[in-house]
Write a structure and sequence with these properties.
The complex is a heterotrimer of chains A (244), B (255) and C (415). By secondary structure, chain A is α/β, with parallel strands linked by helices. Chain A is 37% helix and 25% strand. Chain A has one domain: 3-Layer(aba) Sandwich (Rossmann fold), CATH 3.40.50. In chain A, helix 7 packs across helix 8. The interface between A and B is medium-sized, with 33 and 30 residues.
Chain lengths: 244, 255, 415
């Protein structure tokens, strides 16, 4: 569905991506993991067209996204921090988002209902708590029923009930054969929600395989532990490489 | 694009700042008309507002708005929308709301008190200057990622066109006082939208000052319909070129 | 002896009554006398020639005897663009009620509607001068009255347009209630003394509304000078009284409401200066009093060159002028006192109607523009505002002592 090929991105002297190649396939669910500054956000933004790669190519459905925008119909994006115009009400925001699409598909308003956003349509964005804004962001990402979903720290700031609602929704959509790409610092969430892991470090993909394999190799039951072990072994390998 | 404009416009109209700006213009204009019975003099005082306050408010507000909408612009761009549409939508929404404020705040008193053609020149140049400085604000916003830096650049634009440029112009006039400078200064004045607007207004409002040799040359030039077309065209270029440059940068910009 | 005296008195009486019993000759196109020329030939001194309406094309009409010419129903006398219409070569001639049109145009001779040389006691009244080169051209004539005429010059180029009322070397003239439009100078006075110009309207003339040189002891009052190419020039004269005139809309690179050059001991009072590029420009003038004048919406109200001294400016109103006063010198030899300045921002704590701090009418930028006229382009810019403010706090360029110590808080009530 999405192929990232040898993508490099420099911000001035800083090399955020140093030649990343990943394949994201439909029906799978990916955990995008990496330390701060490893290039996760740059990678997501590159796929969304918010960041223009210095070199390399990104294909969505086999077509390069460079200078195109209509492919974004297929992508729902939930940003880490959703900030909206202060004086816009939730209802207006939803209207607007429906409006700026030329041909909106069948809408998926499950999350709007589940989060009870329908009762708050008149509320202005600046009066909302961070958690409510997260709910709005989540609802927006799923609203257009896109085949691909990018969720950047989806559960951060949500109350426990809402976290469960959102997780259920993610699992449901995953079951229906969508492509999910999720970043999170909460490993247990990723353990539940994803089947694949892409580990980024210093602008390179260090690990890209299924979570089941990772657990097998490391002999750990939980993703968090498995990742920690894998990262340590990567460090060691590098140490060895340098020493040699 | 109209959809983007519509929603951002409604949003801006409800910000406290735009309301305060409208109220400030409305109150100060009414106060001026109340305190002075000579409408000609009032229009001259309003001219100072148009030349100083309008550009400053326009450029600072637009820059701050752009940065405050950064995440929202990001969100819109993650939708299947063209960057040009989002950018121009933002531009027009900001420009329309500031022009709206200005037209209400200054236009209503001017029409109520009836100032003749001077008042309409005032409104025209005020709107043109608003558009110019919104354009410059959008340019300074896309030039840098940092909000503080962008506001700095915006203020520098304002300071340059309001003061520094005139200082340079004065220096040139002083250095070459023995030469006929009319055509040169005409070109130089066109390079500064604030000066251009000021002279357009002076020709309507304070003509007696401009009747010396230099003034007569300017009066002949700007007084003709060709001159009006020329100055409107130059002001339009001052609106279009910065926003066009900003759009070019924005299209390739990393958000 | 008694009889002799009686006869003498009778004789004198008859002599005195003679003009009153003078003949009246009627000229009309279809009548016995068909031309003004033949009427003049028939007339005896003191006769009245009544000209009925019609058009008379008789070339130059020479009047060499004291006669009264009266037009009835504005008869047209046409010079057909060739000649002077009336040439007067006798005193005590009256020309009244004619429509005098199309005098010749010459660069050698000052052809006029009515021209005269060394003839006194002329009366030119209620005529229309249309398309004449000069309207009335009088030289060496004393005790003339030019009254109630209108002058409208033809639309020709500058050097083909003469003056409306042109007086040279005259005395005791009265120029009253005329309307002059489109000439070179509306009214031209050179070496004219003890004369009065009043109630005239002189507008849209190519050069000056009133051009006034070497003419002493004259008075001009209640005139309107409007929209003239260069306003009004009063030069090289003494003891001139200029009262209650209106100087209006004299705009242009070299236009003045009133240009005063080498004027002494004169008096300027009650005049109104409205929308002139420079309301009063003074050079080499002294001992002149400016009182109760109103200056409104002028580029410069007063430009006072350093060559002026001992003039006084009191009780004048200055409103909405771009610059109230400009000067090129730093010496202060003139008195400015008790005027109203709308730019005055002082206060009046003791409520005596006079501001407690002096007003400095010369702004810094006025000095700059005086030196570099092009700099006027920056007028009303923020830069100029700052410079003027700074100068007010720390005077460095403007003359320290050029100030009004008693600026009034309210404008004077001047008609």
């Amino acid at each position: 569905m999405i192929s990232v090929k040898e993508v490099r991105k420099n911000f001035g002297k800083l090399q955020a991506l140093k030649g990343v190649s990943v394949e994201f396939a439909l029906g799978k669910s990916y955990a995008l993991i990496g330390p701060n500054g490893s290039g996760k956000t740059t990678l997501i933004k590159s796929v969304l067209g918010l960041v223009v790669p210095t070199s390399g190519e990104i294909l969505v459905d086999g077509e390069s996204i460079r200078n195109h925008w209509s492919y974004r119909e297929k992508i729902g994006y939930m940003p880490q921090i959703g900030r909206y115009p202060d004086n816009m009400s939730i209802g207006q925001l939803l209207d607007m988002m429906k409006n700026i699409r030329k041909n909106p598909p069948v809408l998926d308003e499950e999350l709007i209902e589940a989060f009870k956003l329908g009762n708050m349509l008149d509320k202005r964005m600046h009066t909302l708590s961070g958690g409510t804004r997260q709910k709005v962001s989540a609802a927006l990402a799923f609203l257009f029923n896109p085949p691909v979903l990018f969720l950047d720290e989806p559960t951060a700031g949500l109350d426990p009930v809402s976290v469960e609602i959102l997780k259920d929704k993610i699992l449901k959509e995953k079951e229906s054969g969508k492509l999910m790409i999720i970043t999170s610092h909460i490993m247990s969430d990723l353990d539940e929600l994803t089947t694949e892991v892409v580990y980024l470090q210093e602008g390179l993909t260090r690990y890209n395989d299924s979570i089941a394999d990772l657990k097998d190799i490391t002999g750990e039951q939980r993703l968090g532990k498995a990742m920690a072990k894998m990262i340590r072994s990567l460090e060691n390998n590098r140490q060895v490489a340098i020493n040699n | 694009m109209t959809r983007v404009i519509k929603y951002v416009f409604y949003d801006i109209l409800r910000t406290r700042f735009i309301m305060l700006y409208t109220l400030f213009l409305l109150l100060s204009t009414f106060a001026m008309f109340q305190l002075d019975t000579d409408t000609g003099k009032v229009v001259l005082s309003l001219m100072n507002i148009v030349l100083m306050v309008v550009p400053l408010v326009s450029i600072v507000f637009s820059t701050i708005h752009f940065y405050n909408s950064y995440e929202f612009i990001e969100l819109m761009l993650s939708q299947p929308v063209n960057r040009r549409v989002v950018f121009l939508g933002e531009y027009f929404a900001v420009a329309i709301s500031l022009c709206f404020s200005f037209t209400i705040g200054v236009g209503i008193p001017v029409v109520l008190y009836g100032t003749g053609p001077g008042g309409f020149t005032l409104l025209f140049t005020g709107i043109m200057l608003t558009l110019v400085f919104v354009s410059l604000a959008f340019l300074s916003s896309v030039l840098t990622r940092d909000k503080a830096k962008a506001i700095g650049v915006a203020l520098l634009f304002w300071f340059y066109f309001s003061l520094i440029y005139d200082g340079l112009l004065m220096w040139i006039i002083y250095s070459f006082m023995d030469y006929p400078l009319e055509k040169v200064t005409l070109a130089l004045v066109s390079l500064n939208p604030v000066d251009l607007a000021r002279i357009l207004m002076l020709l309507q409002l304070d003509i007696s000052a401009l009747m010396g040799y230099t003034g007569a040359f300017y009066k002949d030039f700007f007084g003709s319909s060709m001159g009006f077309i020329f100055s409107s065209a130059i002001l339009s270029l001052w609106i279009i070129i910065p926003v066009w440059g900003a759009l070019r940068i924005f299209k390739r910009k990393d958000l | 002896m008694k009889d002799y005296i009686q006869y003498s008195i009778q004789f004198l009486l008859i002599l005195l009554l003679l003009p009153a019993a003078a003949n009246k000759i009627v000229v009309q196109p279809e009548g016995k006398v068909r031309s003004i020329r033949s009427a003049i030939a028939l007339a005896a001194p003191g006769d009245t020639i009544l000209v009925k309406s019609g058009t008379y094309r008789e070339g130059n009409i020479l009047i060499a005897k004291p006669v009264v010419l009266i037009g009835e129903g504005k008869p047209v006398v046409d010079g057909e663009n060739k000649v002077e219409v009336f040439t007067v070569e006798a005193g005590h001639v009256t020309i009244e009620g004619f429509r005098i049109i199309n005098s010749g145009v010459s660069s050698m001779k000052d052809l006029a509607g009515v021209g005269s040389l060394h003839s006194h006691y002329l009366i030119i009244r209620n005529n229309d001068f249309i398309g004449t080169f000069f309207g009335v051209h009088l030289s060496g004539a004393n005790h003339v009255v030019v009254e109630g005429n209108t002058f409208k010059a033809a639309l020709r180029s500058d050097h083909e347009t003469g003056n409306g009322i042109h007086l040279w070397h005259c005395a005791e003239a009265t120029i009253r209630n005329n309307v002059i439009n489109g000439h070179r100078d509306g009214i031209y006075f050179e070496f004219v003394t003890n004369s009065i110009i009043s109630g005239n309207t002189s507008e849209k003339n190519h050069r000056y509304g009133l051009h006034f040189m070497f003419s002493h002891d004259d008075e001009y009052t209640n005139n309107i000078f409007r929209d003239n190419g260069a306003g009004v020039a009063v030069m090289y004269s003494q003891h001139v009284r200029m009262v209650n005139n209106i100087f209006d809309r004299n705009w242009g690179p070299a236009a003045y409401g009133l240009l005063l050059k080498d004027i002494r001991d004169s008096h300027v009072e009650g005049n109104r200066f409205d929308q002139n590029t420079i309301a009063i420009y003074m050079e080499g003038s002294s001992r002149t009093e400016f009182k109760r004048n109103t200056f409104v919406s002028n580029g410069w109200a007063i430009k006072l060159q350093a060559s002026c001294d001992a003039n006084t400016f009191t009780e004048n109103n200055f409103k909405s002028n771009t610059f109230d006063l400009a000067t090129n010198g730093t010496m202060v030899l003139n008195t400015i006192d008790r005027n109203y300045w709308d730019k005055y921002q002082g206060y009046d704590l003791n409520k005596d109607g006079v501001g407690d701090v002096p007003f400095r009418p010369v702004s810094m930028y006025a000095m700059v523009v005086e030196r570099i006229p092009t700099a006027v382009l920056l007028w009303r810019s923020f830069l100029v505002f700052l410079l003027d403010r700074a100068e007010k706090v720390f005077p460095a360029v403007t003359p320290e002592n050029l100030k009004d110590d008693n600026p009034t808080m309210k404008p004077y009530d001047i008609g």
